[in-house]
Amino acid sequence: MVRLLGPQDRLLSTIERQFPEVQLHARGNELTISGEASQVAAATELIEELIVMVQNGQDLGPVDVQASARILEQGNGSPSDLLGQAILTSRGKSIRPKTLGQKQYVDAIDDNTIVFGIGPAGTGKTYLAMAKAVQALQRKEVNRIILTRPAVEAGERLGFLPGTLTDKIDPYLRPLYDALNEMMDPEIVPKLLAAGTVEVAPLAYMRGRTINDSFIVLDEAQNTTPEQMKMFLTRLGFGSKMVVTGDITQIDLPTGASGLRLVTRVLDGIDDIHFARLTSDDVVRHSLVGRIVDAYTEYDQQKQAQRYEREQAQEFANRAERRAAEHRSVNRRPGKGHSS
């Protein structure tokens, strides 16, 4: 019951927010649900699913409750089945998809050679891809993990960093190292890096290679140029799998010509390539992050609509000017308006 309700009954409050017309009362090992019949039935179904997840050893958080309620509301199956399967377990912590979108993303990685995970910050794009990479290495499905990302500054100039080339590029790759240390024994990671079993490198290091029997993750792909994206994808060798992650709303390239944005049009519909599009519903950070993502998305849509209106108005003005110019040209022709 303690694990079901959460610390200070936090999860109980989350369930109540999902069903505003339902009252929940916990006493000992009993949970009483009262309110409108259909809402009580829906709340009961959700709580039964959460109980199964707790019994299976899953630690619940508000995100799990919200995602489970959404799955049941949409009729997409059993949350305990969809979200209950762990990708891997490290130091007592299980890594598993927490939303339906994340589950579909993970399944797509199993079923396709190249998967693009596109979505806003906090949707688990890179984290889940790296978990699948570590799982594939542990199962001996691949011989190596290669993690890469473009070395592009996010809106600030880092200047001339001190140290060797490795020291200079390390800040760009640090998020990948951090995730790797969470998923594997930190004492083993340096040995795997030294042996080349795990490689973390900037995207520029991929040129000229053909990579076989590897799980390759390209992070922050929105900051690749079209040429870099083509170069990366053509590194694919036999027995390898690629996952490309990025957020096309956070492009830091000076030109704005993103290889990730272009590839969604060029490769869409090709067999064995899948585009997984995650949304604010799949954000598993603080609940505010989802609302921030939605607010920025709405703002961007408004700006695009305003830009479109300006372009249409300018085009209309240009057409009117061309017609006026043609009319003036006709009126200035020799003999126009004179009788012989």
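^ that was protein a. below is b, sequence first then the tokens
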Amino acid sequence: MGMSEFYGASDGAEAIATIHRALELGVTLLDTADMYGAGANERLVGEAIADRRDQVVLATKFGVVRDPDSHERLGISGRPEYVIKACDASLRRLGVEHIDLYYQHRVDPDVPIEETVGAMASLIDVGKVRHLGLSEASPEPIRRAPAVHPIAALQSEYSLWTRDPEDEVIPALRELGIGLVAYSPLGRGFLTGRFKSPDDFAEDDFRRNNPRFQGENFNRNLELVERVKEIAAEHDCSPGQLALAWVLHQGEDIVPIPGTKRRPYLEENVGAEEIDLSDEDLHRIDEAAPAGATAGARYPDMSAVNR
């Protein structure tokens, strides 16, 4: 997402080089969405994998509707006819014949989940999609959707910064045999320890308007990061690597998808896989960043958020 929008200036050449480096390092899952850059990110990913499609598990999403000209967010749609139209548009932008994992980006409250998933399943029948997913869904639609077609994954925000899924979502997923794809596993970059002030963000970086990055919330959250830093130092790793390692230790059914725009940060993220955490380490991390410790809401208004 950040390669095309929301996180300051974009650099297409570096973005493609970063994707290529990820594949070289053994990263196989690439995650995008039709609303990232209003289609620009899918075109970027498509360009990057044009000659290496067989190396990639390709995931994209539909459901957040944006005006094609102004890029203004118009709402959420899970209408069956829109599902079909959105998939065809994503296939064209990506330049591929099929999508490996197709997510509903946000559940449409005005359309029964069964109708939306039914339309998504029809895409499997014609070979355009291989597996289905939901994103940021609550336990109720998560439980109802598999009655129509198996759901492979739920994508939701999950990290030391956001542990809400532990209450009801993860138990529901494990009951149903659905994997969790954890986005923003670095707390939108905050857990890397690189940011000391809200002024560290570019004027067009959406984090400036995020409650967790403002005022006293920012200062309180810095204290959380300092506690994570102390444990990271003992493991000779960065706080971001420790935060990623923590997610990786939460279960084989949880896959973090840290986003970055640059190769050095990508390589740092991949290094988290080598960090082994003991039960004692995990207990100490839980004490340093317990559920509910983060100050501020995830978004200023969830109904208006895109990722």
